[in-house]
Amino acid sequence: MFENLSDRLADSFRKLTGRGVLSENDVKQALREVRRALLEADVSFSVARDFVASVTSKAIGKDILRSVSPGQQVIKIVHDELVGLLGDEVVPLELSGRPPLVYLLIGLQGSGKTTTAARLAKWLARYKSKRVLLAACDLQRPAAIDQLETIAAQAGAGFYGRRDTKDPVQVLNEARKEASRSGYDIVIADTAGRLHVDDDLMDELRRTSDAVPAAETLLVIDGLSGQDAVNVANSFQEQIGFTGGIVTKMDGDSRGGAALSFRAVTGRPIKFIGIGEGVDGLEPMNPSRLAGRILGMGDVVGLVEKAQDSWDLKEAEKLEKKLVSNTFSLEDFRGELKRLKRMGSLNDLLAMLPKNMRPAGTDMDPSQLSRMEAIIGSMTMKERLHPEQINGSRRKRIARGSGTRVNDVNRLLREFRTMRTMMKRMKSGKGMKLPGAFR
Ligand SMILES: Nc1nc2c(ncn2[C@@H]2O[C@H](COP(=O)(O)OP(=O)(O)OP(=O)(O)O)[C@@H](O)[C@H]2O)c(=O)[nH]1
Ligand SMILES: [Mg+2]
Question: Which of 34, 127, 214, 235 is most enclosed, with most CB atoms within 10 A?
Answer without folding.
Answer: 34
